[in-house]
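It is worth pausing here to work through a concrete case rather than discussing structure prediction in the abstract. The textbook approach is simple: state the sequence, then state the predicted structure, then interpret. We follow exactly that order.
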Amino acid sequence: MPRRRRVFVDCVTYHVRCRFARGARGFAARGVNKHALRANYLSALAALQNSALDAAYCRKQYQRHEGHPKPHVVALLALARQRFKVVYKLMTTDAAYDKEILIASHLDRERQNTNNGTRAA
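Step two, the predicted structure:
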């Protein structure tokens, strides 16, 4: 993998939250590319507003985490994590992004899960 890609991937995947000794608010650990994290977060926000598929995924995650103190935050972070997985796969393999294939595979999984009686992931 080229160095530029490796640095981006290492910085974003090493997203560790640290705490102050007094238990104050968290901060990103040293070595984390804060610009890449912010870009990933803003990308998830834009996708939530502009993509019906991503908005549906976020609603599903929101319903799944209803007992959580901040289910909207958990849902948005799950969307950002999913989008990062797609970006990582595109960067590390020769795969091409095709939204139609992504939607078709999602619908196939939904159909299989409803036939098996299991919950969709």
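Step three, interpretation. Residues 13-24 have pLDDT under 50 and may be disordered. The CA atoms of residues 34 and 60 lie 28 Å apart.
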